[in-house]
Input
Amino acid sequence: MPEARPDMKIQVGGQAVIEGVMMRSKNFWALSVRKPDKTISTQLFKESSPVSKNRVFGFFIIRGVVSLISNLLVGFKALNFSANESTDSEIEFSKKEMIISTVIAVVFVVGIFFVLPTVIGKTFSNNISNIVVYNILEGLIRIGFFLAYILAVSQIKDIKRVFQYHGAEHKTINAYENGEELKPENVKKYSTINVRCGTSFLMIVMIIAILIFSFLGEQTILWRILSRVLLVPVIAGISYEFIMLAGKFSNNKVVRALLYPGLLLQKITTREPDTGQIEVAIDSLNSVLEAEKLLALNA
Output
């Protein structure tokens, strides 16, 4: 999920959902969805980030973990609302159900992308004497799983639509960060790639995991699995700090080179949007920008 550069007056991030786009600022998040009758439904929610509410949550690395969990919860809410709006149905999930869904998603990700590659790696561990090489190979298996997953879901018709909205989200934020008036004709000319995208974040997670796990030394299979699971929050926190730092120096050639794998992967997870999809993204972003400006005026 991209975050605006710190020097911007209002920081925003976004997420593509079913037939729509969710935009989030420090104190609000908005969801705009294209309804079956082709109109745009926009809802605004006041919900501050936990990082801004509690000083402990703002500490280095901790803030990354807290932000990730917060974004997951908001993301599930946005998906729920978008599913209802895009189909004119009324399916409501309780807070408890949202939390359970988030836990299931986290368990799935950790199990598939961290635990399973470790178990598979054990099958060839006796043939590799160098533990660093072994850990690197395990990491490459992890990245292979991740790439296979992205390629597989990208073939689903409905996901292709979501990827178009993902492109609209990036284009709109890129236009905003460059001071453009938010009109479809202005937004269209911008790239669907953003250095602070969640796709880039996930790739950074995979790479940092390789670096950290490479120095853990010899371990039994049980300790290998436990270390992978227990270090996930640390890896996520470090990855968050890296992606935020990279956002400040996004024009630096070295930074761009380090981010290149994630940027390349966005060629799959974003598609060129049509004018209608860009209009949805603009409506969502304008909603949170206006809310933040009004809040600042009344402060």
In short: Residues 105 and 153 are 16 Å apart (CA to CA).
